Amino acid sequence: MSWEELGALSTFFTLIVIAASAIAAVIQLRHMSSSNQLSATLGLMERWATPEFRELSNYVFRGELDRRLADPHYREDLMSDHTDQIAHPEIAYLGLWETIGSIVKMRYISEESFLDQAGLICIASWDKLAPVIAIMRRNGDLRQFDNFEYLASRAKLWEAAHPGSEFPKGTPRLPTPDPYPDDPRPQGG
Q1: Would you say residue 123 lies in a domain?
Q2: Is residue 122 part of a domain?
Q3: What is the pTM of this model?
Q4: Domain total in the chain
Q5: How far, CA to CA in Å, does 18 sit from each of 5, 7, 30?
Q6: Does residue 143 lie in a domain region?
Q7: Are 144 and 137 in contact (CB under 8 A)?
Q8: What confidence score (pLDDT) does residue 39 get?
Q9: Signed CA dihedral, 139, 145, 147, 150: sign only
Q10: How many Å from the N-terminal Cα to the C-terminal Cα in the chain?
């Protein structure tokens, strides 16, 4: 074998090693991205499960927010540049949704997986908090909670495209016997 043939063979093997290294790097980057998304999702779910978040959620959904919004002074206070989060717990709740919207928009978390898990609560939260946001946007600044708005808009599109359950086709549903068939049934839809 001549020196030229040996050089060509050496170059060919070097090319193979470089290509294999590049493929391994791409695979490792995908794995790291998945790991980062999982870590971010778990962090959000952990925050979601805190007593503070549950308390904020109860404040928004169990009538206290509606009661307070009936007060003109409470609504006026929402237009302040520095709304007090102690007096207005809905601002902290909005802040969490704003953060989630930003994280999803920047693709740190998969939109599909987030909306599959939390699309309906996102929509319900938007519907409940839209009046608060409208009051706060009276100054014309549409940037206030725009990441939450983005997320809710994407959630509505997701739900329209995926009505009902995303239960995998071909997977049988398990029986769920109701041990209390005589309990009252929910009214409405």
Answers
A1: yes
A2: yes
A3: 0.74
A4: 1
A5: 20, 16, 18
A6: yes
A7: yes
A8: 73
A9: negative
A10: 82
Fill in the amino acid letter for 122.
Answer: C
Residue 55 belongs to some domain of the structure: yes
For the chain, the residue count is 189
Q: Alpha-carbon distance 82 to 121, whole Å?
A: 27
> How far is residue 169 from each of residues 36, 119, 166, 173, measured CA to CA in Å?
29, 20, 8, 10
Contact 85, 94 (CB under 8 A): no
Residue entry with tokens 């050089």: 7
Give the 3-state secondary structure of the chain.
Answer: CCHHHHHHHHHHHHHHHHHHHHHHHHHHHHHHHHHHHHHHHHHHHHHHCCHHHHHHHHHHHCCHHHHHHCCHHHHHHHCCCCCCCCCCHHHHHHHHHHHHHHHHHCCCCCHHHHHHHHHHHHHHHHHHHHHHHHHHHHHCCCCCCHHHHHHHHHHHHHHHHCCCCCCCCCCCCCCCCCCCCCCCCCCCC
In angstroms, the CA 62 to CA 96 distance is 18
Q: How confident is the model at residue 29 (pLDDT cuts 50, 70, 90)?
A: low
Residue numbers of the domain that contains 87: 50-161
Contacts of 127 (CB under 8 A, 6+ apart): none
35-82 pLDDT, tens per residue? Answer: 666 676 777 777 777 889 899 999 999 999 999 999 999 999 998 878
